[in-house]
Design goal:
- The chain is an alpha/beta fold and about 260 residues long.
- The protein has 9 helices and 5 strands; from the N terminus they run ααααβαβαβαβαβα.
- The chain has helices at about 5-35, 40-55, 60-65, 70-95, 125-140, 160-170, 185-200, 220-225, 245-265, and strands at about 110-115, 145-150, 180, 210-215, 230-240.
- A 5-stranded parallel sheet has the order 3-2-1-4-5.
- α8 links the parallel β4 (about 210-215) and β5.
- The longest helix has 29 residues, at about 70-95.
- The termini are far apart.
- About 35% of the residues are buried.
């Protein structure tokens, strides 16, 4: 009677690889089909495709690995590196899940709403959640200016700030309170350019400001604001839609690593 004890775990591992690859590939494919294109989408798309192809060619990979000692070493080093990277991603996901809104003793003099994509000049699901939270905070802090910050995406006739401003006006926020920052392309520029607009209205680094963004984005945005010289920073985080959460978190992982790298230079 054949012994299946050694082959059963291999079948389970292979099935797990295939299922994981299909989930990542389909997740990336749907978002790409909807016009969402950034690292957090391309990575699961190509990673999932690679896992599916690896499963399909598993016999050839096993033959290649067994053919030479350096093949086995290269394979082991690659596997170790992949495992280490996956652990770092998991730890980062735990870190951003544990982030909470920050409050300050004084009322914010300005709300800075950070952009998050406006395909076809309409708010993405993530941006719509930020704008709803911004509307709520605008009611809570009626004396605060509201800066909508975001430049123009490639190929679009509108800026994110214009899309956000239109959405807030339609939700009942007074036009006179809204300040448009239409030049920025990333979080650091969001805060740098918004600071200039606030300075022109007499708001200085010792005043309290509130960052309104997605929950996963706030730790990095808060850190950048402090690096930019703001001493009293409150934050309000909007929930990330489940349909884009994996992609958004992956994108934020690389953005966080990039920010730490450039800050350390």
């Amino acid at each position: 009677m054949p012994n299946h004890s050694s082959t059963l775990p291999q079948h389970r591992i292979g099935a797990a690889i295939l299922v994981t690859g299909l989930i990542l590939f389909l997740d990336g494919s749907v978002l790409l089909a909807n016009g969402t294109r950034h690292l957090g989408v391309w990575l699961p798309f190509w990673g999932g495709l690679a896992l599916c192809l690896g499963y399909w060619q598993r016999q050839r990979l096993a033959t290649w690995r067994a053919a030479r000692r350096w093949h086995r070493r290269l394979w082991n080093w690659g596997a170790a590196g992949l495992i280490a990277w996956l652990i770092s991603v998991l730890l980062f996901f735990i870190f951003i899940q544990g982030a909470h809104d920050r409050t300050e003793h004084s009322a914010p003099r300005a709300l800075i709403v950070l952009g998050s994509g406006s395909p076809e000049c309409r708010p993405s699901a993530t941006l719509a959640a930020r704008l709803e939270l911004a509307r709520q905070q605008a009611i809570r802090w009626p004396q605060a200016w509201i800066i909508v910050s975001g430049g123009r995406d490639d190929g679009l006739a509108c800026s994110e700030a214009e899309v956000m401003a239109d959405s807030l006006r339609a939700a009942g926020v007074a036009t006179a309170r809204i300040i448009l920052e239409t030049a920025s392309r990333n979080t650091a520029e969001n805060l740098a350019y918004s600071s200039r607009l606030l300075g022109a209205r007499g708001i200085v680094a010792s005043d309290t400001i509130m960052l309104v963004s997605s929950d996963f984005h706030l730790p990095r945005a808060y850190w950048i604001a402090q690096q930019a010289g703001w001493h009293s920073v409150a934050t309000a985080g909007a929930p990330t839609p489940p349909s884009v959460r994996l992609n958004a978190w992956l994108r934020e992982y690389f953005s966080f690593v990039k920010a730490c790298y450039y800050h350390g230079k």
